[in-house]
Design goal:
mainly alpha; 110 residues; 6 helices
Length: 110
C-alpha cells in the first residue's frame, strides 16, 4: 500500500440522523419542542443539521432546561440553535457539572 491518490476520505465523528428520526425524538420531548421543530423546518432550507444539533444538546443538558430555552426562543422568534446553546450555557447547569461535583474529593479536616 502506498500513498493515497485522490480525495481524502471524509471522517464523520458523529452519526447524523435522518430528518424523520430526529423529528420523532424531538417530538417525544414535549409539545413545545414539537411546535419549535415544525417552525424550524419551515425556516431552514435544510433543517436536518440544526435539528441534529438541537437533539445533541441532550448530551450536556437536562430536558427541562432545553425545553425552557426552546420556549424562550419561540417567544422571541429565534430559530438559531447556537442562540439556544448560549442560553443554556448561561442559565442552565449542565450534566457535566453535576458529574464533576460528585467526582471532587472531600476536603480533609486535620
Amino acid at each position: 500500500m502506498g500513498r493515497y491518490i485522490g480525495l481524502p476520505p471524509v471522517f464523520i465523528h458523529a452519526k447524523v440522523l435522518k430528518l424523520a428520526e430526529v423529528r420523532q425524538r424531538l417530538s417525544a420531548m414535549g409539545g413545545v419542542m414539537e411546535k419549535y421543530t415544525e417552525k424550524l423546518i419551515l425556516q431552514k432550507k435544510d433543517p436536518t443539521p440544526a435539528l441534529n444539533a438541537l437533539l445533541a444538546l441532550k448530551v450536556h443538558y437536562f430536558t427541562e432546561d432545553i425545553l425552557k430555552a426552546v420556549s424562550r426562543a419561540m417567544d422571541h422568534g429565534v430559530y438559531d440553535i447556537k442562540t439556544i446553546e448560549r442560553f443554556l450555557k448561561t442559565h442552565a447547569q449542565g450534566r457535566d457539572a453535576i458529574k464533576t461535583l460528585f467526582d471532587q474529593l472531600p476536603d480533609d479536616e486535620n
